[in-house]
Design a protein that fits this description.
Helices cover 41% and strands 22% of the residues. By secondary structure, the protein is α/β, with parallel strands linked by helices. The strands form 2 sheets. A 9-stranded mixed sheet has the order 6-5-1-9-10-11-12-13-14, with helices on both faces. A 5-stranded mixed sheet has the order 3-8-7-2-4. The relative contact order is 0.15.
């Protein structure tokens, strides 16, 4: 038995969610549905424009990889997170959230001065999320934040695709995969965003390596990576990238490939309020399920159920007690 089910590496961001409409996005020149990197001045500009809007979730820890690792932990799978926060109030918030979820992490020593990363999440009435991320100290996440022993003591490593945007964090992601491969630990990666595939392809190929054990992506990312508009062809080409994969299809459900069979996973019909964190929850629930011994179709159905619960609520995660209730509802334990 390994100590951890999953070891994750990703950006530590503190989210602020704000409800807007398409006219607001146009006025602010924000690309809808994508993650856009911004500097501190641009973040302040956006917040000035949004002054007075209803804030639905303030000072909630986020970041794609963190959301996934926390989900796996709250479902009952022990996890470890490599990340970087500054010695500031937002850094305290982030590490407190990891502790509350039972996630071990790499930030137990003295923290550097600086600014913890932030993400302004703009939610339109169609539940689409448009993210504006100020990475701040995350830009300097490096191999120094890795814990080789914790990687070796994990069943899986999970790499957040967003790490491709920084030279040092991309190097850390690559080294995480290499240590895992050297230690016989299975490798998983999420493409994270269509922009990561489109604009950082060379770096993403380095992070992927020769072949992953498991890939998470959505339909747009799958097509972008495969360089085709045909989903069936994209799915075939993903088999050259990973031994298994899960492709989320939004309201159409998902496709999961276990290395032998491709299974269509039906969606859970919900009234969508906020898609922020849905893909992260899908990955976290899926990893929890396969590390407890479930097959891919079962893991896909559980992940689809969990993602549907997220979409029906504001914010990237559920209340902590809802994870055990969801697990009991699905698995009966």
């Amino acid at each position: 038995m390994k100590k951890y089910k999953v070891y994750g590496i990703g950006a530590a961001l503190v989210d602020t969610e704000i409800k807007v409409d398409d006219a607001d996005l146009a006025a602010m020149n924000v690309e809808k549905g994508l993650m856009t990197l911004v500097d501190e001045d641009r973040l302040k500009e956006l917040l000035r424009h949004l002054d007075g809007h209803l804030v639905k979730a303030t000072h909630a820890s986020g970041g794609s990889g963190g959301n996934t690792i926390i989900a796996t932990a709250l479902f009952g799978g022990p996890t470890f997170m490599s990340c970087k926060v500054a010695n500031d109030a937002d850094g305290d918030i982030y590490l407190d959230d990891l502790k509350s979820a039972g996630v071990d992490h790499s930030m137990n020593g003295e923290r550097e001065q600086g600014i913890t990363g932030k993400c302004l999440v703009l939610i339109t009435p169609d539940a689409e999320r448009s993210m504006n991320s100020y990475l701040a100290i995350n830009d300097t996440l490096s191999v120094d934040q890795l814990d080789a022993q914790a990687i070796a003591e994990s069943e899986w490593v999970y790499i957040e695709g967003y790490r491709v945007t920084s030279d040092t964090s991309r190097e850390a992601a690559i080294r995480t995969r290499e240590i895992a491969e050297e230690s016989g630990v299975k490798t998983a990666l999420s493409f994270s965003d269509p922009g990561m595939v489109e604009f950082f392809r060379d770096g993403m190929e380095q992070m992927v390596g020769e072949k992953l054990d498991l890939l998470f992506c959505n339909e747009a990312e799958a097509k972008g990576w495969a360089q085709t508009d045909d989903l069936d062809l994209a799915v075939e080409r993903l088999k050259n990238t990973a031994r298994s994969f899960a492709v989320t299809l939004g309201a159409e459900g998902a496709l999961v490939f276990d290395g032998t069979e491709l299974t269509s996973i039906p969606p859970h019909q919900v009234h969508a309020l906020d898609s922020n964190g849905a893909g992260d929850m899908f990955a976290g629930a899926f990893l929890y399920a396969i590390t407890r011994g479930e097959d891919f179709p079962t893991a896909g159905r559980f992940a689809s159920l969990a993602a549907g619960k997220i979409v029906a609520n504001y914010g990237p995660r559920l209340a902590s007690q809802e994870y055990s209730a969801l697990r009991a509802e699905f698995f009966g334990d």
